[in-house]
């Protein structure tokens, strides 16, 4: 339950970033990826993984299927919003380019293109689904090796993967191609690139395997110890956010601050929430947070469309008030879609039976 609370907080971080209240977006994405790897490993620890190419492909498509219809729906809405003024102005070249972006988005290939004009195109957050499609495909192969490792080896794997990410980022920190606009190669590599973000998923998987073993061995953390560690981790999250916002030395550089800066604290936060022993973990179990955590997958895809399509109607309001209204609309739409999806799922089951 506390993990759903952490998921809700990660979504709120991303949401607040997109409405201009904070710069917590990269932290939220880091938590999402680490948490995804954790849950895949933790819930699938005793599972017999099909590691064939076909089996991994089916697993990846099955995992992405829940959100793909909503992805297509939000893509079409975003496409309509951008296409309408182009049609009236008869800008055919731009329309053709937009069509290419729409194809890449629909095929979930846009995260592989190192241009912000592509990976942030249309529904800007859908690059995350493009990344996840690849990560889910690779994970069964990684899980086979993680299950064979004891806790010390898993810790070593997580550290080595993290250091490999740092090494790759340092090695390529001066790489730049003039034709790539907006954010450059470093941000694409360390924040968007599916191959690079595979490291986050594997690190989360290592933590998930450790927690699965702790659960089997009935190892529990004392409440006071867990609470103290939670407070320390929250302090470190705030510190990392300060380094990010103020771009302090190497911690705030383009090649480091979008993913590697937040990974260690994201790991610690997910691990402690999974223990569920500390007082802060208990707060994460509050019903409103769990409710939002359950809806966060839908809300993640919907909120940017609401910001673009409906947000301008409230432009005259203060930023905080506008953010609350957009969040409320997002939650209502997400709940509505969740109900429709559940009804469709039940109908499909009934027809199958």
Order of helices and strands: HHHHHHHHHHHHHHH
Report the span from N to C terminus: 32 Å
The mean pLDDT is: 91
**Ranges with pLDDT <50 over ≥5 residues?**
none
Number of helices: 15
SS strand fraction = under 5%
By helix and strand content, what is the structural category?
mainly alpha
Shape: globular
Number of strands: 0
Let me know the largest β-sheet. none
Number of domains: 1
Radius of gyration: 21 Å
Give the % helix: over 70%
Describe the structure in your own words.
- The protein has one domain (2-9, 32-296).
- It is mainly α.
- The protein contains 15 helices and no strands.
- The chain is 75% helix and 0% strand.
Keywords:
353 residues, mainly alpha
Task: Write the SSE topology.
Elements: H1 2-18, H2 25-43, H3 53-65, H4 68-89, H5 92-106, H6 116-119, H7 127-147, H8 151-171, H9 184-192, H10 194-216, H11 223-246, H12 263-275, H13 279-283, H14 287-309, H15 319-352
Entry summary:
With 353 residues, the protein is mainly α. Helix content is 75%, strand content 0%. Helix 11 runs antiparallel to helix 12.
